[in-house]
Amino acid sequence: MPMKTLEMKMGEVTDSLCNAPSKATFYKVLVDKLAKFYGVSKQMVKYRLTELGDGEANNIQLNKYDFEAFTHKIDNQKAFHEYCTNQQLKQLVDSGLFTYVDDYFVINHDKFRHISPNGTMCLTDLAKGNITKCTIKFENRRVKVADYPNIFSDSLNRNAYDNKPIYEYDKNRDTIEYAKQQAQEFSDTKPFRISNSTTFKDFFAKKCEDCGIITSAEFEERTWLSRDMFSKLKSSDKKVSLETAVCVCAGFDLPSKQSEWLLELAGYVLNDTETQQAYKWILGDRFKGTSLEVRNAFLEQNGFEPLGKKEYVNAFA
Questions:
Q1: DSSP string computed for the chain
Q2: What's the maximum distance between 2 C-alpha atoms anywhere in the chain?
Q3: What is the pLDDT of residues 149-182, one digit of tens each?
Q4: Percent of the chain whose pLDDT exceeds 90
Q5: CA 146 → CA 82, 140, 149, 150, distances in Å?
Q6: Edge-first strand listing for the sheet containing 70-71
Q7: Closest C-alpha among 115, 92, 102, 114 to residue 178
Q8: Which residue of 40, 127, 156, 161 has the smallest Cβ count within 10 Å?
Q9: Please, which residues have CB within 8 angstroms of residue 77's CB and are 6 or more apart in sequence?
Q10: Least confident range of 26-35, 43-52, 117-126, 171-180
Q11: On the CB side of 122, how many CA atoms lie within 13 Å of its CA?
């Protein structure tokens, strides 16, 4: 497929396809015609189109078993793994520039994500209509399922190979620049601010009031901590354990920024150890509006100890 003649031939074929019903049909016919004309494989045509700078060529599906070269949608398990192992992506999320919602890493702005009537975080209609502009794009790479048991947990029911989304900065320059232009403080920080004199005990009492948690029974049901811990956290100045503080954040379903504040008041800043990265994840927007039981299921699925219950005895550090 000489590059000199390819562009000319593409122009001829493209003119004949001006009334193609869809982009997918257009590319399917284009690739088929060029492959027959040059006597080469469809895969070679796809490769040549990519060389010519046609970005859409990457997503041409030649066979029913082909996978898209790029994706913006990434499931929770793969997203968590990529967040933990890709430092560049982790920095984008930890800095507050992006957040993980509805299976997308979306710009962390009121215009693109909001809390639904049932309390979960979801994409706005504006975001859904501009997925390629406001969400991170990942390159799909074919990998052996057996090499990534944490991602493909149901590997026994899968083929030997599957797609693993990979984040690369160069493929997301425009989206990141757009995110920086849209940057603002988290909307959930506006209603309540903490002062330098605020203690964990003060913040805990305030959140109990905000969440309508009045009795020790309600506290136990939400946090999986013992009932007597309810009064202790309200009255004691002792330092609580990290697990107890995370239980409170998750059980009270605090917004991610307020969870950070409460943890800081308890004397903790989550680090990059595996367990604490998992804590960051379950306190993020992906789990907004979910119970501690749902968050514990995710922890256990990934080999971490569930929160609550066991903390009845060792709630204080």
A1: --HHHHHHHHHHHHHHTTT-SSHHHHHHHHHHHHHHHHT--HHHHHHHHHHTT-GGGGG---STT---SEES---HHHHHHHHHH-HHHHHHHHTTSEEEETTEEEE-STTTEEE-TTS-EEE-HHHHTTHHHHB--EEEEEEEGGG-TTT-TTGGGS-SEEEEEEE-GGGGHHHHHHHHHH----GGGSS----TT--HHHHHHHHHHHHT--SHHHHHHHH---HHHHHHHHH--SPBPHHHHHHHHHHTT--HHHHHHHHHHTT----SSHHHHHHHHHTSGGGTT--HHHHHHHHHHTT-PPSSSGGGT--B-
A2: 81
A3: 777 755 444 567 778 899 999 999 999 999 999 8
A4: 57
A5: 17, 17, 6, 10
A6: 70-71, 138-144, 161-167
A7: 92
A8: 156
A9: 150, 151, 153, 301
A10: 43-52
A11: 11
CA distance 141 to 135: 19
% of residues, the chain, pLDDT over 70: 82
Cα angle 192, 92, 279 (rounded to 5 degrees) comes to: 65
pLDDT in tens, 246-287: 999 999 999 999 999 999 999 999 999 999 999 999 999 999
Hey, what amino acid is at 291? S
* pLDDT confidence of residue 296: 94
Average pLDDT, the chain: 84
State how far the alpha carbon of 258 is from the alpha carbons of 203, 253, 261, in Å: 10, 10, 5
- What mean pLDDT do residues 84-97 have? 95
Residues composing the chain: 317
Half-sphere exposure of 6 (CA within 13 A, CB side): 20
Residue whose structure tokens are 């789990």: 287
Tokens linked to 209? 């009031």
